[in-house]
Amino acid sequence: MKRIISFIISLLIIGLIVYYQKPITNFILQEFIYKKEIPDYKVNNYYTNNNYDYVKYSDNFYPNNTDDIKNAIYTILNSGMISFNLFCSEEYTDCISDVEKISTDDYVLSNINNLIHPYNSYNKLHITTNALGKVNIKIDKLYSDSEIEEINTKLEKIKKEIIDNKMSTRDKIKAFHDYVINNTVYDQKRSEEIKQNINTKNTNESNKANGVLKNHIALCSGYTDLMAIFLSSIDVPNYKIANKDHVWNAVYLDNNWYHLDLTWDDPITSTGENMLIYDFFLITTEQLEKLNTNQHKYDKTVYGF
Description:
It is a single chain. The protein is built from 12 helices and 8 strands. It is an alpha+beta fold. It has 3 domains: 1-33; 37-141, no CATH class; 145-303, C8orf32 fold, CATH 3.10.620. It has a 3-stranded antiparallel beta sheet, covered by helices on one side. A 3-stranded antiparallel beta sheet has the order 6-7-8, covered by helices on one side. Strands 4-5 form a two-stranded parallel sheet. Strand 2 and strand 3 (134-141) form a beta hairpin. It is elongated.
């Protein structure tokens, strides 16, 4: 009799395990293999304490909608970390598909990238998911530690040469604006290659701040990154504004936001003569729009002013 009862109990247990196989498996995976543990959130020296209409700082790493996902990505990038996990809430049934859409949306991701310090920006962003709602984000930084050290060392040397403490903030920005333009030429060759989709190595690194300082040749992204790094070094709030063809700086000064574009203040001339102009030096949006260039149209729902 005892054997029969034991057999029946065993069958019941096996039946329950088979019937509840999926929830039991999910429980084991979630609690022991894919534990829903958020890593310690830490920020580096290049974290910026800025919120925007487009994205905001968030301590919610269990997203419930697409805004939560974008805010979490912004927060992680802005922190300077190179890896972090999110976990979709069980009620958010479209979470994984929404994450996958955002992870392939260059427009959304590049906009977020423009709102953080260049040193925390990504070169490549790897976002992976699993069926249990875990989202892993890994960041390949645009600037290596050695490049950051090189830029900072050169930048401090330049600042000592061209800036003194008696100067106003505007004058400091002007001095650096002039220095960069007087010591840099636009990388026309690489610009034409990009327009023609010619994928050659950018040996001048003209798209990055270290290339501008080292080789004195720049694309708009190189000019803009270098200015953004300088502005942050003197505690001036700033970010980058971009469209599909161009990028420039947004600068907060005297309680107002202004546009600053070193690329267009360093024009290419038919004679090859170097020029320094101030058409795009700390101008308002109204002034920018009056200049009526096709290169400066941008999405105000992203960049605000």
